[in-house]
Specification:
Order of helices and strands: HEHEHHHHHHHHH
Strand order of the largest sheet: 1-2
Structural class: mainly alpha
Strand content: under 5%
Oligomer: single chain
Shape: elongated
Helix content: 55-70%
Distance between the termini: 56 Å
Amino acid sequence: MLLKQTLQKPLNTVRIVGIKSRVVTPGFFAFAVILTGILTDRPGSLTCVKSFPRQSDKVSALRQDREVTKMVEHVVFENAKEELVIPALAPVYDKLAQPMAWSIFRLAVGGMLVIEGWPKIIAPLAQVGFVENIGMYPGWFWSPFLAALQFFGGMLIAAGLFTRPVALANGVMLAMTLWFHVTHPYGEAFLTPAGIEALKATGQQLFTPQALMRLKDGGHVFLEQVQGKAELASLFWTGGAFLYAAFGGGYLSLDRLLFRKHF
C-alpha cells in the first residue's frame, strides 16, 4: 500500500537518502524500496527515504521571500550587533539614527536645490553667458534646462521620487559648478593700490565702518573667504547629491513606498 501511494507521486518529488541526493523516477524508487526490504528484512520499509517539495516551488518561494525582504526590511547600512562596541545600540541606529539622518539630509539637499534654483526659474535665460563660457551651446537651451533640473530635481530629491537618476544628474551639474569655482576664482582684490589710497582719504564719507574694514586691504581677505566658502559649499552639495545617486532615497522616500525595484 505504501509503495502504491509513493508511486503515485509526481516525478522529481522523491529523493533517496545516501544516493548523492539524486532525483529518482517511480521505477527506480520501487527498486530502492525492494532492495531496502531485502537488506533490512523488513519488506516495504521506507526508513531511508524522505520526500521533498518540487525544486521549482522552492526557487519560487525563495524569490518571493527575497522580494518581500527587500521591500520591507531594506536597510541602507546594516549595524551587526557583533561588530558594535555597544551592541544594545544597534536598534537605535537602525530604527532612529539612520532614518532621521537619511531623510533630513535628503530634505536638505533637495531643499537647497529648490532655493538656489528658484531665481533661475523666474529668469530662465539669466545663465546663458555662464553656460556658454564653460562650453555648453546653445546657451538659450542649457540655461532653462539646468534651471529646471535644479529646481524641479530638488523637489524630487526632497520627496525621494526617482531619487537616483535625478540626484545623479544634479551631482554632475554641481560638480561642474565646483570645477568652475576652482578654475575661475573671484580674484585677488576689489581695489587697486590707487583705489586703496582714495578709500583712506574719502572712504569715511562713502562707506560704512564694516565696509571700510573689509576694503582696507583692497578686499583681499574678504574675497579669499568668499572663494573658500563657494568651493566648500559646492563640494558639500556635490557630495550630497552623489550620495543619494549611489544609495537611493532610502527611508521615508516615495521610491521605497511606490516601487518594488531600485533605480
